[in-house]
């Protein structure tokens, strides 16, 4: 009952409650534990398809009168789910790996986001080391987008040729995450996870790992929760 695509408790609950995917419960647990999204937050959801995290993020903003915004970006064209989402949610079809920071920043009403969520995952090949490397590349892209050149300040001891690509080292020193903001990055379990911790801990007030209960037993997914970007 735990294999990929097999209906289980979280799948059935998603169907019952109107979430477009069981992955909603991953963000619900993250939100319940860490309370990253507050009323009025501006949230960026990287790899937003099929839209379950958009639903949870908008829910977490509270009533429409509270304000806030949710922007989802994905390689696929994603329709905003009608349930739990409102006019504060928009989606953009684009390749995050090629999207300049200034264009992403302009999507926020405040020229920056208070929460950046990355649920991006590579097309899994089944080759563990390859999949982990591709996951780390996506994770580093999310980190570089969020904090800018600050991500490179703690790379002395890690394999920069594998974790860091040219798009992180742009002329734009500043990331799109506001001071005090929060970042969530999905990764596949590998040795690179320790290196991500070494990068993030000096940049944030707190960095911790979480494997949500809704994660399938066969999955190697794990989330790095970074809270309170230091200015």
TrEMBL record:
Q: Looking at the keywords, is Transit peptide present?
A: no
Cross-referenced InterPro entries, in alphabetical order? RNA_methyltr_RlmE, RNA_MeTrfase_FtsJ_dom, rRNA-MeTfrase_E, SAM-dependent_MTases_sf
GO molecular function terms here? Answer: methyltransferase activity
- Which UniProt keywords are listed? Methyltransferase, rRNA processing, S-adenosyl-L-methionine, Transferase
Listed HAMAP family: RNA_methyltr_E
State the similarity comment. Belongs to the class I-like SAM-binding methyltransferase superfamily. RNA methyltransferase RlmE family.
According to UniProt, the name of this protein is rRNA methyltransferase 2, mitochondrial
Q: Which organism is it from?
A: Populus trichocarpa
Taxonomic lineage: Eukaryota, Viridiplantae, Streptophyta, Embryophyta, Tracheophyta
């Amino acid at each position: 009952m735990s294999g990929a695509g097999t209906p289980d408790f979280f799948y059935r609950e998603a169907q019952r409650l109107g979430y477009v995917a069981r992955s909603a419960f991953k963000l619900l647990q993250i939100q319940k534990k860490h309370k990253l999204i507050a009323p009025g937050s501006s949230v960026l959801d990287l790899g937003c398809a099929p839209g379950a995290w958009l639903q949870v993020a908008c829910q977490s903003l509270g009533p429409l009168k509270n304000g806030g915004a949710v922007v989802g970006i994905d390689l696929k064209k994603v329709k905003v789910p009608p349930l739990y989402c409102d006019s504060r949610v928009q989606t953009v079809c684009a390749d995050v790996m090629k999207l300049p920071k200034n264009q992403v920043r302009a999507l926020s009403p405040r020229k920056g986001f208070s929460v950046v969520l990355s649920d991006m995952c590579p097309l899994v090949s089944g080759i563990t080391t390859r999949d982990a490397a591709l996951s780390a590349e996506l994770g580093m892209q999310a980190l570089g987008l969020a904090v800018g050149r600050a991500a490179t300040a703690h790379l002395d001891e890690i394999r920069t040729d594998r974790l860091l690509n040219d798009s992180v080292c742009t002329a734009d020193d500043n990331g799109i995450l506001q001071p005090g903001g929060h970042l969530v990055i999905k990764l596949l379990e590998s040795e690179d996870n320790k290196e991500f911790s070494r990068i993030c801990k000096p940049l944030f007030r707190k960095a911790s790992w979480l494997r949500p209960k809704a994660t399938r037993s066969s999955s190697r997914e794990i989330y790095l929760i970074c809270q309170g970007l230091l200015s």
